[in-house]
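Suppose a colleague, Dr. K., hands you the sequence of a protein chain of 417 amino acids and asks what its three-dimensional shape might be. Before reaching for any lab equipment, you can write down a predicted structure in token form. Begin with the sequence itself:
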Amino acid sequence: MAKKPHVNLVFIGHVDHGKSTLIGRMLVEKGVISEKELQEEAGSFKFAWVMDREKEERERGVTIDVAYQKFETPKNLITIIDAPGHRDFIKNMITGASQADAAVLVVAADDGIMPQTREHAALAFTLGVDQLIVTINKMDLVDYSADVYTKLRTEIKNLLSSIGYKNVDQIPIIPISAFYGEGVTKPSERMPWYKGPVFVQALEELKEPPKPVDKPLRIPIQDVYSITGVGTVPIGRVETGVLKVGDTVVFEPAGVKGDVKSIEMHHESIQQAEPGDNIGFNVRGVAKDQIRRGDVAGHPDNPPAVVREFTAKIVVLTSPGDIGPGFTPTFHCHAAHVPGRITQLMQKIDPKTGSVVEENPAAIRKGDAAVIRVAVLKPLVMERSSDIPQLSRFAIRHAGQTIAAGICVDIVPAKKS
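The predicted structure, expressed as tokens, is then:
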């Protein structure tokens, strides 16, 4: 039997707009989990509990770390990545979005577009998530009103096109009530005015991206475990290349090597892993404390690039005033986050056309696009977008908010010590 196309799907949107509830509702209605398996929790959190594994999340009712759940539709195999909406946890959301092939943007009908809605949508675009489904959730709170839906649909289209999404008319914008199951797996009798696909139908249209198996191996590490009787097990998603049992791998910037003894995906043993696979792999010869989240595994003959400086194109989403040389925010690239100093503003560019507006501008601010040079203050693996685009994308954060997003266009490698 042919393997189904595999799509990594991230759920994004403002806190409390119902992302986890939508996932829980869909998994229950599709029989992936039973109503019994849902905690006997009263109130509106019951579906959300499916994805919120950690005790702290359950107590606070907020999604903190990125959770995974496998889900099959008749056409696709989907790995659901539930990304946090709460602004404290945006670091993990960046990790989730950087692993995704497609995104579901959840917007609550009563709140409309909120700050995190914009931020998440802009990040998804910058991180290369080009397939998007929008759900307008909590339609029950606005009496399933067609007028509310139509107004919000227009606002969402305007937002997406301003961020850079093309063909926004092709993006499904679906009215639902996740808590009551309206419009999730079957058409809602409460919304006879809506003629488009229901949520699960839209998932069938998602396409598996081409697998860059011919590129060098790159696996950004999300986590590292030490398992008794097994040894060191890094967890991550294969971005490019192929990992096989028996391979020797090198972790950068740590610079340590080890041999791959086994690979697991969704708790099943596999012989090789390809781009898009979220895996754990047992490495002999590497201690747990020698590697960490943000390191990247590759083959020693073509190791991940560790940079000292890089040149990047960025778009400023919001700014705490003017941004100029000397500004030192945090750069989030794949699972790494390191401080970096902007050493030069090389060009201000038109965000729509890419043409140069000004050479060596003194400062940039919200809405500007620019080419900048950055010196990193700690070792970081980053690749040119022309070589390995999956490891070229990053977000810039400062004082608790995402202020810009960008891609690396050139690097100055760090000297080997």
